[in-house]
């Protein structure tokens, strides 16, 4: 089957009655419940809209019965999420029939309503990834276990009630202090009646309690009676030998939740004893933490990269960065706290730059998929893979394929810039002759500038300039600088170029064209170059020069502006490493 038109066939028919509506409802959830496949997104959106329309015709109980029928296996996370936001009866039936992979559950569960997560806890066939996500989110069984009645009585009943049930025990003998200068000792019983001629006897020890609240109370009373005595050992609570302190390693991040007053009422299991009860809304006024979170808390706004200081054990003490969002009840919209994540604070500028780079790379990853699909389909049409195609359509397909290639090249440049500026990409070491590369590329660009009556006035004093990078990286760096300047050069302009080596540096000085010389910041200049043989790329001259600056810095050099000049300086190889290698000698420059 080359084309799957089953969904379109179902949507072409209108359900005119309840019976027809039930039939179409089953057909739609059967088709949408399959594994996500490539298809028309508009057709899938129309299917969900049809399900919403059918819901007005079919009662809730009937829909829940249909969804809970044997034989359903919902393998589409989108449909499972859609059912999870429906009526509780329907959500429970759909989540019981859902069969997803561990990775799909891990991505889906945090996006489900809290009520729907509770339904999942009753399943015993979930993958380990799903169980870990539920544990991390604090989803537990809704039914509380039945308590042990004997333990409950031992812990809760008052002391008088327990003593009333025990058999009568003779009270212990308590001795009074001896009188000064009197040889006779008066013993006083616990009932207050004196007994004469009673021999002195040691106090009768009280039986040691066996456990529970009474044992704790008796131990406290014993400590209060004997706290005046000096001894080597002091009583410790709870009973038993104290356990050695456990050395905890610092925590990098943890999830948390607060109540409506801003106090942490939930956190991950290992962190909860150390942070539960901490107030996050206390204003300190010294920048130590709380001010930014408190301001957002008053207005019920999301918190983004707020700095906060936690005090406590070594595992949590220090500066933290908080990201959190307010929570509201679904029915009434009542505010009941925040939920978010604590992560160890790093340098603010590095943190923001890293987050921005990560978001950009994720966006590029999402955009490459449709562009690759367009390019592939265009090449199929242009090459007539599936049969003859009119020349007009082949020309259009070739144009689309070319535009797609330029877009993908721009994505690669964006990704390279993000990785270079955040330090996640380093240039590979090697040996490249920058002087030979500059000679070859300038000769190529002279032929491009000649039709404009423009030219490069060069003064290349260096015969060889060996750099500690590969030939490919050196050619890309030189081409970004020279081609960007050539693309911005106007008709009749003459651009001066100087290349010399001194003090262990190779320095290329290039005069800026008039269009770039008038810009306040040449590295953020937004002017687009032409679409001819030489241009600055789809993002303009400023972006190309910024990428060249990032590459120069990764190579240990710098690209900067000095008034009307652009200066590229790169470190040279020294000693034995500077000996030229025939393998690294460029045969031609990249263009």
From TrEMBL:
The keyword Transmembrane is assigned to this record: no
Name of this chain's protein: histidine kinase
The Signal transduction histidine kinase dimerisation/phosphoacceptor domain, residue ranges: 355-423
Keyword hit for ATP-binding: no
Species in which this protein is naturally found: Qipengyuania profundimaris
Residues of the signal peptide: none
Residue segments, region Disordered: 172-212
Root EC class: transferase
Pfam families: HisKA
EC number(s) per entry: 2.7.13.3
Reaction it catalyzes: ATP + protein L-histidine = ADP + protein N-phospho-L-histidine
Keywords: Kinase, Transferase
SUPFAM superfamilies: Homodimeric domain of signal transducing histidine kinase
GO MF annotations in UniProt: kinase activity
Origin: domain of life: Bacteria
């Amino acid at each position: 089957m080359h084309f799957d038109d089953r969904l379109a066939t179902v949507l072409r028919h209108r359900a005119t009655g309840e019976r027809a509506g039930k039939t179409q409802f089953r057909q739609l959830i059967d088709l949408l419940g399959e594994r996500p496949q490539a298809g028309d997104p508009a057709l899938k959106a129309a299917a969900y809209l049809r399900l919403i329309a059918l819901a007005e015709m079919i009662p809730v109980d009937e829909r829940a019965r249909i969804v809970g029928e044997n034989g359903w296996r919902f393998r589409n996370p989108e449909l499972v999420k859609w059912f999870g936001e429906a009526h509780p009866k329907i959500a429970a039936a759909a989540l019981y029939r859902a069969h997803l992979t561990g990775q799909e559950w891990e991505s889906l569960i945090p996006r489900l309503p809290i009520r729907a997560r509770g339904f999942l806890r009753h399943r015993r066939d979930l993958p380990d990834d799903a169980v870990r996500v539920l544990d991390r989110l604090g989803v537990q069984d809704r039914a509380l276990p039945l308590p042990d009645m004997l333990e409950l009585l031992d812990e809760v009943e008052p002391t008088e009630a327990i003593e009333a049930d025990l058999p009568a025990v003779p009270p212990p003998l308590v001795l009074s202090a001896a009188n000064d200068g009197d040889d006779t000792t008066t013993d006083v019983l616990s009932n207050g009646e004196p007994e004469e001629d009673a021999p002195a006897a040691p106090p009768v020890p009280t039986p040691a309690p066996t456990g529970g609240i009474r044992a704790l109370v008796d131990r406290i009373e014993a400590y209060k009676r004997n706290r005046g005595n000096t001894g080597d050992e002091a009583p410790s609570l709870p009973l038993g030998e104290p356990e050695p302190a456990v050395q905890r390693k610092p925590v990098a991040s943890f999830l948390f939740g607060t109540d409506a007053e801003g106090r942490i009422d939930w956190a991950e299991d290992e962190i909860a004893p150390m942070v539960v009860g901490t107030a996050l809304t206390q204003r300190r006024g010294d920048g130590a933490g709380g001010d930014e979170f408190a301001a957002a808390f008053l207005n019920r706004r999301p918190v983004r990269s707020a700095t906060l200081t936690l005090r406590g054990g070594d595992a949590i003490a220090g500066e933290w960065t908080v990201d959190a969002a307010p929570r509201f009840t679904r029915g009434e919209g009542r505010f009941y706290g925040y939920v978010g994540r604590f992560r160890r604070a790093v340098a603010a500028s590095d943190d923001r730059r890293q987050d921005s780079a990560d978001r950009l790379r994720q966006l590029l990853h999402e955009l490459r998929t449709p562009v690759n699909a367009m390019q592939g389909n265009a090449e199929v049409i242009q090459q007539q893979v599936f049969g003859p195609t009119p020349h007009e359509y082949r020309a259009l397909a070739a144009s689309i394929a070319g535009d797609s290639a330029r877009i993908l090249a721009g994505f690669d440049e964006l990704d390279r810039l993000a990785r270079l500026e955040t330090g996640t990409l380093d240039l590979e070491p090697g040996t490249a002759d920058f002087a030979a590369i500059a000679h070859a590329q300038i000769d190529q660009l002279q032929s491009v500038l000649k039709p404009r009556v423009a030219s490069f006035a060069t003064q290349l004093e260096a015969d060889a300039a060996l750099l500690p990078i590969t030939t490919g990286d050196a050619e890309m760096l030189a081409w970004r600088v020279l081609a960007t300047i050539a693309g911005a050069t106007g008709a009749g302009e003459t651009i001066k170029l100087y290349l010399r080596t001194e003090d262990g540096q190779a320095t290329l000085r290039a005069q800026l064209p008039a269009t770039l010389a008038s810009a306040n910041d040449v590295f953020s200049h937004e002017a687009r170059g032409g679409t001819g043989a030489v241009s600055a790329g789809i993002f303009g001259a400023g972006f190309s020069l910024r990428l060249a600056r990032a590459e120069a810095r990764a190579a240990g050099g710098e690209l900067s502006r000095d008034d009307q000049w652009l200066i590229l300086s790169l470190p040279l190889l020294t000693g034995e490493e500077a000996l030229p290698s025939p393998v690294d000698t460029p045969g031609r420059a990249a263009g």
